[in-house]
Amino acid sequence: MLELRPNCECCDRDLPPESPEAMICTFECTFCADCATGVLDGACPNCGGAFERRPVRPAAMLAKYPAPTKRILKAGGCGPAEAA
Q1: What's the pLDDT score for residue 84?
Q2: Which among 57, 52, 77, 76 has a CA at the least distance from the CA of 68?
Q3: Chain mean position to CA 72
Q4: What pLDDT shows up at residue 1?
Q5: Which domains does the chain have, with CATH numbers?
Q6: Geometric angle at alpha carbon 69, from 63 and 70, rounded to 5°
Q7: Full DSSP string of the chain
Q8: pTM of the model
Q9: Which of 12, 51, 76, 79 is the most exposed place for a label (fewest CB within 10 A)?
């Protein structure tokens, strides 16, 4: 089950569970669409993977399986992923 993290790891923008602006990689690293496409140039700075729009959990399921409130922020700021 997706974590539905509450914020962009780069700019700390709020990304509520219903946000169409939330982007995730395969490890659920979470960024806003502006950071994912702009600052990060479409590649996760943590794993180098591509981003996809995060699915929205239906309201009934969100009530049963709430999103976490712990905010995650990338230490040292954000920049494009480095080549491995």
Answers
A1: 45
A2: 57
A3: 9
A4: 87
A5: 1-65 (3.30.40)
A6: 150
A7: -----SB-TTT--B--TT-TTEEE-TT--EEEHHHHHTTTTTB-TTT-PBPEEPPPPPHHHHHHSPPP------TT---PPPP-
A8: 0.87
A9: 76
Placement of tokens 């089950």 in the chain: 1
Residue position matching structure tokens 């914020």 = 7
Rounded CA gap, 64 and 74, in Å?
29
Please check whether residue 70 is in contact with residue 47, taking contact to mean a CB–CB distance below 8 angstroms: no
45: β partners: none
Residue type at position 44:
C
